[in-house]
Amino acid sequence: MAATTKTCGGCLCGAVRYAVDGPMRPVVYCHCEQCRKTSGHFVAASACEPQDLDIVTSSGLRWYDSSAHAQRGFCSVCGANLFWRPSGGGHVSIMAGTIDTPTGVDAIAHIFVANASDYYELGDGLPQYADGGPDGLGEVDP
Q: What is the value of pTM for the model shown?
């Protein structure tokens, strides 16, 4: 079930704060190489509709074109990995560790496990997909 209350969060130093006024997708763990390289491990991300995301404090927010298909939002002050958004829109992924607790979201799956690194094992019993998973997994309210 997706969380539907106002959700807030931000980076370590406070130079980026956000609020989401709408449903949040359950957390998906992404093991693709880009997520691993930008986070230092695999990524745990929820998501929301772009119109539901309000960047309350944006002084540190920068966007990086990580591929022809997506951008990653991060804090230029403390380096926190905050957002991922596809170039075509549709949703904004929010790194779950940046959401203030209680988050109100649960994890539902691992994606791109074919690209997982060799120093960890997945044993939490969640569904695992070699690629991006079934259609709709990246949507806000699957």
A: 0.92
